[in-house]
Amino acid sequence: MGLLKNDKNEHMKKAFVLVVLFIFPLVAYLFFASGVNNFGRLPVLTENISNLERFDTNVSLDGKITILGFLGNEVEFKKGNAFNLNQKIYKRFGKFKDFQIVMIVPKGNGNKEKVTSLKAELGTLSDIEKWYFVFVEDSEVKSFFQQLKTDKALDENLGTPYVFIIDKDLNLRGRTDDEDEGMKYGFNSTSVADLNNKMEDDVKIILAEYRLALKKNNADRSK
């Protein structure tokens, strides 16, 4: 009886190991694959954001996944925001070919020199090749921000701690059912938690969305 019991236990152990090694990963794959198919698109909140061609710049939003921000005239007081964004978002996603961070900065007020200092400091933390700073007139900062049609506002220095995800087709992406804000247009770069817990997830979703679209296009061409 003892031998039979031991054999039975051994069979049960082997069956359990097989489930852990083979069945569970399959179930997990099907679950996440289903999630990507059903919930894998980040909602479009504002369509047809204008490109930057009206400004004197070679930077373009077209065909890029862009994190768009507005530094304002007090660049020196936004360094902490930039460092948070660099450490939590840029370091994670900057290696992707079509990813970039674009900061709109008012002309004048010594802002070019302030940005040069900021870039030097950021450069000690990572390669900032895909960080871009576009200098525009005050009125253009306001009009460019307004077309995003968000529930946020620029402060008296034409800046905001919030940054926004713009897709390759010049649409603003965000959340329509955020647990804290409902409609979530932007992410607070002052808050490490907002960048870590929400923005990182949303950037992952949009990157996965484009990867899936690329795979589908390649599969269609090969038929």
UniProtKB/TrEMBL annotation:
Gene3D superfamilies: Glutaredoxin (3.40.30.10)
Swiss-Prot/TrEMBL keywords: Membrane, Transmembrane, Transmembrane helix
Keyword Transmembrane helix among record annotations: yes
Taxonomy, superkingdom: Bacteria
Transmembrane residue ranges: 15-32
Name of this chain's protein: Membrane or secreted protein
